[in-house]
Amino acid sequence: KAITAQVEEKRKKKQLEEEQRKKEEQEEERRLAREQEEMQKQYEEDILKQKQKEEIMTLKTIELFQTMQRAQELAQRLKQEQRIRELAQKGHDTSRLIKNLG
């Protein structure tokens, strides 16, 4: 009987150890899954931030280009107006030039 009890005790101990090992493995798998999920989430956030930065840069570039274009158009118009004034002072007929200027 003592031997049977001893064998049974060893079997129970081994079973408990096996259950404990499986439990630890499952916990480790869950931890790794959470870690991987967190890394994936961080990666996606980083990609999104990068995209947003690129979009902002594109918008700023477009805005700068449009501002420069408007400045050039304004400078051209001011130059034409100055030229018309100079011609008018010299007695030239500038009505057509003024009409074309808009």
Automatic annotation (TrEMBL):
The lineage of its organism: Eukaryota, Metazoa, Chordata, Craniata, Vertebrata. Pfam families: CCDC66. Residues 1-95 form the CCDC66 domain. Residues 1-41 are annotated as: Disordered. GO terms for cellular component: cilium; microtubule; photoreceptor inner segment. One of its GO terms (biological process) is cilium assembly. This is CCDC66 domain-containing protein. InterPro entries: CCD66, CCDC66_dom. Residues 7-41 have a biased composition (Basic and acidic residues). GO terms for molecular function: microtubule binding.
